[in-house]
Amino acid sequence: MPKRKILVDDTRREISAHGTETFPMTVNHDDLWSFEGRNVPIHWHNDLEISLPREGEAIYQVYQKTYRIRPGEGLLLNRNVPHSCSSPDNHHARYSTILVRPDFLYGDFGSDVERNCFRPFLENSAVPCIYLTDQDKSEAEILQKLNLVEELFDQKPYCYELEIKGLLCEVFSRIFYRHRQELNKLVPANLLELERLEKMLNYLNMHFAEVISLSELADQVHLSREVCCRLFKKMTGKTITEYLEEYRVNKSFSLVQSGQYSMTQIADMAGFSNASRFASAFRKMFGCNPGEYNSLKQQNK
Q1: CB atoms within 10 A of CB 33
Q2: Which stretches within 86-208 are classed as H helix?
Q3: Is a pLDDT exceeding 60 seen at residue 296?
Q4: Is the pLDDT higher at 287 or at 102?
Q5: Percentages of the chain per state (helix, strand, coil), in multiples of 5
Q6: What CATH code would you report for 25-184?
Q7: Binning pLDDT at 50, 70 and 90, where does residue 201 land?
């Protein structure tokens, strides 16, 4: 079965539409092992995302903070927030994801609902995500309603679209009310920082197979090398070196699966300086050496 990919442009902004133009929301059912590299790399999108783990743990990196989300919990991700997802100890992590375009819920831009309810969240860099736990009665009810959204979307009974919209409006109303103190302290999003991150990721992704100069990368965003490194860490939670290593391992994954190349050839094509560094990075991500991966995969089927 072909591995899933998050379709993104060169800046890691997702380009896939979620839902349709006339019903801009969807529910995905995923297993991290169904993605290339068994992880979802850094990306972001204009839609709101709610992750609901069903089996195992999903580890989300949101800026410099890590969230371990387990079954019965949830994570609401704000729009245009860079995030990645992995599982601990190379274990399966199955989860459902609700993705919804904000204007599906608030209607016209400038409406009272958009201005008074959604804008304090959507334009607030201080609230990139909201963690939901079933240990709190009110949040447990929110999670139950999100489970019902998933059920309705999967079964599609008559007028399910209207019921889903009503449930999502109630969910966001409750979430915003519970977090009203945070949302009332609006910290405007720094769009320049996101633009600079886009440029850095574009440069790294275009030149991943080469020896990358930190000075040249910093020049792309007109920053010093030190400020460039700090901004990258702030926005992704990873150092530039860590990001490149993960990106290169993900790029090597299909080459390893093909069985057509030696480890030295793959290391060179993926941008590693030698086969030893490649094997070490691959082992850190998958828990085995590249040469062992295909045989272990057959054993686990």
Answers
A1: 19
A2: 102-106, 112, 119-122, 137-155, 160-178, 180-184, 191-206
A3: no
A4: 102
A5: 50, 20, 30
A6: 2.60.120.280
A7: very high
